[in-house]
Xylose isomerase (Pedobacter yulinensis), 443 residues
Amino acid sequence: MKNVITGDLEFFKGIGQIQFEGPESDNPLAFRWYNAAQMVGGKTMEAHFRFACAYWHSFNGNGSDPFGSATHLFPWDEKSDPIARAKDKMDAAFEFMSKMQLPFYCFHDVDLVDYTDVISENEKRLETLVAYAREKQSASGIRLLWGTANLFSHRRYMNGAATNPDFQVLAHAGAQVKAAIDATIALGGENYVFWGGREGYMSLLNTNMKREQEHLARFLHLAKDYARKQGFTGTFFIEPKPCEPTKHQYDYDAATVIAFLQQYGLTTDFKLNLEVNHATLAGHTFQHELQVAADHGLLGSIDANRGDAQNGWDTDQFPNNLNELVETMLVILEAGGLGSGGVNFDAKIRRNSTDPADLFYAHIGSMDLFARALLAAHRILETSEFQKIRAARYASFDAGEGAAFEAGKLNLEDLRNYAVRMGEPETRSGRQEFLENLVNRYL
Ligand code: XLS
Ligand code: NI
Ligand code: NI
């Protein structure tokens, strides 16, 4: 349990620490399923998820959209001095996270404090807020899951950062990443993320794709080498997304990023941070992306959220589909968990969710749903025939000629002769509906 901490002001007055009260509770400000200390399969719920709060959505995201300005008028966003304002915001963040029992947080450099166009001034500002965050972390027990640099909002990055055709812009990105890595290390961050929002193109007519991707790889190597030299032992994550804000992002999906990491010799240091809404934008289910990463030993961390079935953009809503989450947890449990990663709520409350309590409801609902999904997935794996049924589909490869094929001992003529000898195969059901019903029985 985290120590609740507030600054000079209490920003979420009237709301104490959210406690587990069990499924029968009708208290909207209590957990009904998420019980941090509860053991599930040899690990506490807290350790399974390592839930993290996304600083940018919860404390900077003010409800504005392309059609209208801010609707969330934050009391921590009032002071005119940027450092004083940033400290108020950090007070609010740690108050909220400690009241929510969130063990981790994640940030972009510019989420912590406003940046200017002067690199040395930005470095100074970030160091000031990092020192403040260190105090807050040790008072609350909250830790940094990952840090990152925002290389997509400033207008200089309109043509990309590490993939910008202008070396001067690339160098700026380097300066920003260096400071963000320094901040992550100073705060004991367990991972460092690269999401390449504008690392892609708007038109191939003006783009040398090969050169841009080589620059990106070189840039990642420099960042990794610098961090290792500074003693960083954590994992680097790439967060795939197919598009938005660019028309085409190079880190399209898990398979694309894995091929890139392999091509440029980055798989020892880098893994994947997968986001639900990015998977759906790429035309995949989230489970698909998780499985691809897990199969390569590169499942790192997740950004939990959801899209909207009727909208084709990254709406970043809080998760609320139990069935999908159970399938998600099945993949994660079978992969052996998230390691140094965690579950970061890269999600925002809606523009018209304007009560201070709304941020609590959003996190409570999602943490509860993850907990329910974990319990269901754990029981499916422990007590049902799910894994056996799947394995049985491949039984023909377990012995005889099938096993010889897997072991690389057959050639194409052997396949032909086997087929002639055995004749037409029996039809075998994939039993999809049966398995869907099996999962539903555990919800
Ligand atoms: C945007 C991304 C971003 C990353 C961090 O779509 O999800 O929020 O997680 O830069
Ligand atoms: Ni994300
Ligand atoms: Ni996103």
About this structure: The longest strand covers residues 143-148.
